[in-house]
Design goal:
With about 750 residues, this protein is mainly beta.
Length: about 750
């Protein structure tokens, strides 16, 4: 059976047909279902106080806790509801405060958050009503996310003078440490917000944003909007591919007539490579401010802009050009504070708060929810909460999330002509919205994560008058294999001919020509049969040593450094690297296209290649682009893994012919050039073998793997020149074909079985 592969990681479809609502109640009150569903909601559920909401792959999380951890906190409980509002499960109040700023959810629906009891703070995994695990964390501001590798990250602002802090990482299975805590220095600033994207993490301080890989290493930034910090990030959001959109403030030197504001508002885009653009908000607003920036699936973003007298929504495209503009509807004066959400189809929804006269001299708050299509077209308003008939119900909406086909909102309402205050019981309301899909960007991130830890199995409980016994089946063991390296590991020369394009989806498209093949040797290896296998395939055609530390230099869509995929839980690693650093592709292109009258390959390239191979083998503390350095980094990031480093196979027979066709009409390899190419491969392999041995890795000698099947034999295990329709040399040239990968897999398998 073929394993699942990842490019960059396995994509598993999610179902939103079963929806659960998780409610963290600040005071343990009995469940209260509203007798009626006011304002036409699908269902209504009474909460003890206001709630902030987070979306789950199978529902929504509502947290009603509202006290600071610096004072005596309230206590909390968790309750789950189905889409129809029926009880699903309940986590009882156990005397702890559940922080509403630190909730994160993985693809399996497990909720991770920090909890507080006097004198102790813990990171807890709540799995379908069961506390799967908890670990102590420093008593400081915590920010929790789940990476697309399924690891739980806790960013803790415990640095000196509130600058910098520490990054902790935990395995979702049991809370074990994924890697040791990493200290983040003062250059990161005050750690304000924390995000995950596909293959990395983003940290925001007011003055800067920073990109980390999934092993916690800095790979971009800190990027500042001004050297002195006077222009600063305010409302940051991050798209699944790592693009940052932010509302920012820049000093302007004067004040707005309506308010003493001494800055102007900007919309800014930053990527892993730095700031892309900054734009002022709508210039038609004389004194404008922006709120609630939300990324969109098409690469742009939408934000609210207000000048204290009017409010609008504005789309800005990924390249910084202005898109559509719309004005929310409301039956009364609009409060400029609104809440934006987008779904995975690009539909935008906005809560607009407004005021109205509710009688007896009182002014009440209402809320409208307006949906807009991906093109900005106004759709039918989904929700209007405000004066209704004689009852004149008044509302104040706190937060809402989007699910498939519905909006779920937390709101406070009163049933008479009186104002609505922020305290007191609230209701959770569900409203139908046609065409609505999962909330973006979170629903997209879940498709990029592993499926997650299976839910805690149902417990079997036997109760007597004196004892209670609970048994739970442990989750199955997993053998984690990560395949890294260059084209000799990705399968460049061995496409699957009955697959469109020949390569695994996502690895043969503009921006990503990593060309991962199901025929590559990593796909052919067998793991210990007693274990459930987890396979992560990240080798990339054209990779050099530097690509282990940073985004791929040849593939702009391959943003994740290869070592990011290595963790303390990794059991097995295979890799090839060094051939591209040694310029073998350039050498072979010259040799294959050289006319007989031109200078030989050896004379043109020997000096450069010999120099590079020598430098690759030097173990220098100041140079990370060497074989010893990259092997040491791999070992440090996968300390519990067996790591197998392959060399490269010999291209030509030990005793080559006098001449051999290159695959290009009229072009041949000379005897001396074939012997020299073999010798250079052997020289590189010696450097690889020595470096691997010095670092303590397993070296797999594949130099003779193609013996009797080299180039210029009747059944070669390697491609000659492969020409495109336009007669250009394709990447598959001079790479192992399917038979070659089978031969390499056999040698690697022997080493794995040997242990």
């Amino acid at each position: 059976m073929r394993r699942q592969w990842a490019a960059p990681i396995s994509i598993r479809p999610l179902s939103l047909l079963t929806v659960a609502v998780v409610i963290a109640a600040a005071i343990a009150l009995p469940h209260a279902r509203a007798d009626t569903n006011p304002q036409g909601s699908e269902w209504s559920f009474t909460l003890p106080s206001s709630a902030t909401l987070s979306v789950l792959p199978n529902g929504v999380v509502a947290n009603t806790s509202n006290s600071s951890t610096t004072v005596t906190p309230d206590t909390s409980a968790l309750t789950a509801l189905t889409p129809s509002g029926a009880d699903l499960w309940h986590f009882p109040d156990n005397g702890q405060y559940i922080d509403q700023n630190d909730e994160a959810v993985d693809a399996a629906g497990t909720l991770y958050t920090t909890t507080y009891t006097p004198g102790a703070m813990r990171l807890v995994a709540y799995d379908h009503g069961v506390e799967r695990w908890s670990v102590p964390v420093p008593n400081a501001q915590n920010r929790v996310v789940v990476g697309t590798n399924g690891v739980v990250y806790d960013l803790i602002a415990d640095g000196p003078n509130d600058l910098g802090g520490t990054l902790h990482a935990f395995k979702a299975t049991d809370g074990a440490e994924a890697f040791p805590p990493i200290t983040l220095g003062s250059e990161y600033g005050f750690l304000l917000r924390f995000f995950a994207y596909d293959g990395g993490l983003v940290i925001q301080s007011p003055a800067a944003v920073s990109y980390l890989d999934l092993s916690g290493r800095l790979i971009g930034g800190p990027y500042k909007l001004s050297a002195d910090g006077s222009t600063y990030f305010h409302d940051v959001t991050v798209s699944p591919n790592g693009d940052i959109f932010s509302h920012a403030y820049e000093p302007k030197g004067d004040s707005c007539p309506e308010s003493p504001v001494y800055y102007k508002s900007l919309i800014v885009k930053v990527t892993l490579k730095g700031e892309i653009w900054r734009r002022p908000v709508d210039p038609s607003y004389s004194c404008s401010d922006a709120y609630s920036v939300v990324p969109l699936p098409d690469g742009g973003a939408v934000y609210e802009v207000s000048d204290f007298t009017k409010t609008s929504l504005q789309k800005i495209n990924g390249d910084g050009t202005v898109g559509w503009k719309q004005t929310p509807t409301a039956p009364g004066p609009i409060d400029h504070t609104t809440t934006l959400r987008a779904d995975a189809s690009g539909q935008v929804l906005v809560i607009t708060l407004f005021t109205f006269d509710c009688g007896d001299g009182f002014s009440c708050s209402g809320a409208a929810v307006d949906p807009f299509g991906p093109d900005g077209a106004a759709l039918t308003p989904a929700v209007l909460m405000g004066p209704v008939g004689d009852a004149r119900q008044s509302w104040q909406a706190d937060d809402f999330i989007t699910l498939q086909g519905q909006v779920v909102m937390s709101a406070l309402h009163s049933d008479g002509p009186r104002p609505v205050f922020s305290s007191g019981p609230h209701t959770l309301e569900s409203f139908a919205v046609a065409g609505l899909t999962g909330q973006y960007p979170q629903s997209t991130l879940w498709t990029l994560m592993p499926a997650g830890v299976p839910p805690v199995p149902a417990t079997t409980t036997t109760t007597t008058t004196t004892t209670t016994t609970t048994t739970t089946e442990p989750p199955p063991a997993s053998y984690e294999y990560v395949a890294l390296g260059d084209s000799y590991s990705s399968g460049e020369g061995a496409p699957e001919f009955d697959r469109p394009g020949g390569f695994i989806e996502g690895s043969d498209e503009p921006g990503n020509r990593c060309h991962r093949s199901v025929n590559a040797y990593p796909e052919l290896l067998r793991m210990p049969s007693a274990l459930t296998e987890s396979f992560s395939f990240h080798a990339c055609s054209g990779a050099i040593i530097e690509d282990f530390y940073t985004y791929n230099h040849n593939n702009s869509g391959e943003l994740t450094p290869q070592i990011t995929w290595l963790l303390s839980t990794t059991d097995l690693v295979t890799l090839t690297v060094g051939g591209n650093d040694a310029q073998f592709a350039d050498v072979m292109n010259y040799c294959a296209l050289r006319a007989a009258y031109q200078t030989s390959c050896q004379k043109v390239w020997q000096g450069a290649v010999d120099s590079v191979i020598t430098n690759l083998g030097i173990d220098s503390p100041s140079d990370r682009d060497t074989l010893p350095a990259v092997y040491r980094t791999v070992k440090n990031n996968a300390p519990n893994a067996k790591i197998y480093v392959l060399g490269y196979p010999r291209f030509f027979p030990v005793k080559p012919r006098a001449i051999c066709g290159t695959g290009v009409p009229g072009r041949t390899f000379s005897h001396s050039d074939m012997a020299w190419i073999n010798a250079e491969i052997a020289s590189l392999n010696r450097a690889i073998s020595k470096a691997a041995s010095d670092i303590g890795l397993h070296y797999v000698d594949v130099y003779n793997a193609f013996n009797g099947h080299e180039l210029c034999t009747s059944q070669p295990y390697m491609n000659r020149v492969v020409l495109s329709i336009s007669d250009t040399v394709r990447q598959q040239s001079y790479h192992p074909n399917q038979l070659g990968h089978k031969a390499m897999a056999k040698l690697v398998q022997t080493e794995i079985d040997r242990g």
